[in-house]
Design goal:
The chain has 149 residues and is mainly beta. The protein has one domain: Immunoglobulin-like, CATH 2.60.40. It has one helix and ten strands. The strands form three sheets. Strands 2-3-10-9-6 form a five-stranded mixed beta sheet, with no helix packed on it. A three-stranded antiparallel beta sheet has the order 4-8-7, with no helix packed on it. It has a two-stranded antiparallel ribbon with strand order 1-5. Strand 9 and strand 10 form a beta hairpin. 15% of the residues are buried.
Length: 149
C-alpha cells in the first residue's frame, strides 16, 4: 500500500474514535414496551371508609347506610383506587377479579362497558377483590371489602 493511503486510513480511524467519544454510542428505542412491575391499592381512610393495611392486603371497611342506586349514584358506594407501577408502564389498564355470584355488590360500568372500580352495594357483604394488570404479566393487589351494618 502507498504511504498516503495508510495515512488517510489512520486519519479516518482516529477521527471515528473521536466522533464516537464525543457523541457516545447511545441507542434510542422507539415503541419500547415497559411492563407492569406492581399494582397497589391506594385507598385512604375517609369519612365513609376505614382502610386497614395488614401488610398482606388492604381491608376496606364501609358502613352500609342505604342501597346504592346506579342511575343517580347515591347510597352506599366505594371507589377503588389503584396505582400501576412503574408510572410509565405501557399498558396501565386493570381488571377486577371477584366473586360475580355475590348479589349484594355491583361494579359500575362506564358507557364503553368498562368497570371503573366504583362498587355499588345493596346490603352488608364481604368481598375479596383482586386488582390485576392486563398486560399479560398478571401483577395484582388483593383487597378485602367489608360492608357492615
Amino acid at each position: 500500500m502507498k504511504k498516503s493511503t495508510l495515512i488517510i486510513i489512520l486519519i479516518i480511524y482516529v477521527a471515528s474514535i473521536a466522533i464516537i467519544n464525543f457523541f457516545g454510542m447511545s441507542v434510542k428505542l422507539y415503541d419500547e414496551v415497559i411492563n407492569v412491575t406492581a399494582v397497589e391499592c391506594i385507598n385512604k381512610t375517609d369519612k365513609n371508609t376505614e382502610v386497614i393495611d395488614n401488610g398482606e392486603r388492604k381491608i376496606l371497611k364501609v358502613k352500609f347506610t342505604e342501597p346504592a342506586n346506579a342511575t343517580d349514584l347515591t347510597g352506599t358506594m366505594l371507589q377503588l383506587q389503584w396505582r400501576v407501577l412503574p408510572d410509565n408502564a405501557t399498558v396501565k389498564d386493570v381488571r377486577f377479579v371477584y366473586n360475580t355470584q355475590n348479589t349484594r355488590v355491583e361494579f359500575y360500568e362506564d358507557e364503553k362497558g368498562r368497570k371503573t372500580g366504583l362498587m355499588l352495594f345493596s346490603g352488608p357483604t364481604m368481598l375479596d377483590v383482586r386488582i390485576m394488570s392486563t398486560d399479560g404479566l398478571r401483577k395484582y393487589a388483593d383487597v378485602l371489602v367489608w360492608v357492615y351494618a
